[in-house]
Write a structure and sequence with these properties.
The chain is an alpha/beta fold. Helices cover 47% and strands 14% of the residues. The protein has twelve helices and ten strands. Strands 3-2-1-4-8-6-9 form a seven-stranded mixed β-sheet, with helices on both faces. The N and C termini lie far apart (47 Å).
Length: 294
């Protein structure tokens, strides 16, 4: 591997420590590297300024502040367009580096596939009250985080939180900019990787997810994601469990039942999901009912 572009989209998050950690590790790689941060018009200008100051005072770092919010897909395409090297490492801003060999593990694996996914780990304990829904959902899926499990369905398990990709492959596919809301843009990207025969490798090199949100915020983001899945149901293929269940409902002509459940039980389901002991089966039912009323 000859050089590396590290690309970080930011929105309302203090990523100063992430920049410092990556910069320090980059100095030890022995190859040219750059860190590019693009702020997608954050509403919290204090956080924006903190990240800007750190980026501008570190060598090999560039910072962009967009005047208008362009969304999760477009911001990643923007970052790729600004990069100057042939390997792109995309990282979410609300993550932390826990391994001093994080970048080296990626560079060591860089020539083994066109795409390398390192994975993500979540907190072992609830960070604070009010985050139960996201915390329990992620905790229930913890066994799916290992590279061994992800490798069983490598394209289906692709996520955009942390991945290395050949620039040539990225420029051929790019993220679909019609995804302006939260969710499923990475599902379609994984589907496009498979459709284009781009090789993918999963390794155990996780970032720590620091950005668990409150249950109400997460439920709002979930509805946005379901809307995205519905709007792009003909593009994602069989890459979404939700759409697989939805197609079965349509096949069995049972959509009316889930619409009735939504009409009578939406509020009670939301009360459970926003409470201290949210039921994950209720969460799955909630998403299926919601897509059935769209």
């Amino acid at each position: 591997m000859e050089a590396l572009s590290i690309l970080i989209p930011v929105y309302n998050w203090d990523c100063t420590q992430l920049i410092k950690d990556l910069h320090f590790q980059g100095l030890t790689l022995g190859i040219p590297y750059e860190i590019i941060i693009a702020d997608d018009c954050s509403t919290d200008k204090d956080l924006q300024q903190k990240s800007r100051l750190v980026a501008e005072t570190h060598e090999n770092c560039r910072y962009f502040a967009l005047e208008h919010n362009i969304g999760r897909a477009s911001i990643r395409n923007f970052l790729a367009d600004q990069s100057k090297y042939d390997k792109l490492l995309f990282l979410d801003c609300d993550t932390g580096v826990k391994d001093k060999q994080f970048l080296k593990k990626y560079t060591d694996a860089a020539d083994k596939a066109s795409v390398v996914c390192g994975g993500l780990i979540h907190p072992d304990e609830l960070p604070e009250k009010g985050m139960e829904l996201r915390y329990l959902y992620e905790k229930s899926a913890a066994f799916e985080r290992s590279a061994g499990f992800r490798s069983q369905n490598p394209y289906l398990r692709f996520t955009s939180c942390s991945f290395l990709i050949d620039k040539s492959a990225f420029m051929k596919i790019r993220f679909d900019e019609s995804y302006v809301r939260y969710g499923y843009e990475d599902v379609q990207f994984g589907h496009e990787l498979e459709e284009n025969g781009v090789s993918i490798l999963h390794i155990d090199n996780p970032l720590a997810h620091l950005g668990l949100e409150g249950s109400e915020s997460y439920l709002n983001k979930t509805r946005q994601a379901v809307l995205n899945a519905f709007d792009h149901k003909d593009d994602i293929g069989e890459s979404s469990k939700l759409l697989t269940h939805y197609r079965k409902v349509l096949k069995w002509k049972m959509r009316w039942l889930f619409r009735i459940i939504w009409a009578f039980f939406q509020k009670s389901m939301e009360k459970n999901l926003l409470g201290p002991k949210p039921g994950l089966r209720i969460f799955s039912l909630y998403k299926l009912c919601y897509i059935c009323v769209l």
